[in-house]
Amino acid sequence: MTRTAVLVGCAELPKGDGDEAAVIPALESLGFSVSWAPWDAQFDFAAADAVILRATWDYPSRRAEFLDWCESVPALVNSADVVRWNTDKAYLVELLDAGLPVVPTTVVPPGSAARFPSTEFVVKPSVGAGSRGAARFAAGADAAAHVAALHAEGHPALIQPYQSSVDTDGELALVYFGGIYSHAFAKGAMLRSTMDGSGLYLAEQLAKAEPPADTMALAEDVLDAASALLGILRAELLYARVDVVRGADGRPLPLELELTEPSLGFRQADPSAAMRFASAVRQQLA
């Protein structure tokens, strides 16, 4: 029986950034008919067996519209409830409250005054993708103008102490399919990367990586905590990416949990990763 899977992009990237090239033949080998479509296109998404968010990277400026669309798609993965929770980085505060050693995060809603760390720090919008709107400031700097600019766009601002290990070690991204670890890749410092021609994401330096045991354990804790907060099983997440950095004391810290439309690093993974993803899609339909 042929099933239909739609990989979802946006108008600027209707077929993604190329990372899913190996995914299409893997899905086809498991009996799927695969197509791409921008999320806001005139397309019968309701007729598909699986609608998979991949490169919907224009949503930050249209989040309400995007969430309405997500709610209208019965076979969306990850689900609309997951997308709503995960597209506002205030979820980091919830993970902090759950006892995880997340990079300290302060949310500053529009109309509220910001207090800045005494160390080097980063200010970014709570709704954003690809580090757009993120800026790094020196210790003691006044970033009120940047916060005000984010507020003027309707976004709460997130303030985090800058983790200097990113300059030397970058970030480590751990990828899970159906709640099960698949692979990992290393990312260079995003705030030093250059914007892709689409203007929607940063062209990062990526490389295959093997996560150490403490990072693996932390990523597992993050997925367990997020699933509990969402009231779902880990297996209900088709994909998840946990981005981890090292703190000043050397301990791993979760920087972000990507459950909506993250790059999954297939080009940095072993050849079997695409088939693991395709199998997880089948599992979502069981």
UniProtKB/TrEMBL annotation:
Residues 92-286 form the ATP-grasp domain. InterPro entries: ATP-grasp, DcsG_Biosynth_Enzyme. Keywords: ATP-binding, Nucleotide-binding. Signal peptide: none annotated. SUPFAM superfamilies: Glutathione synthetase ATP-binding domain-like. This is ATP-grasp domain-containing protein. It comes from Amycolatopsis melonis.
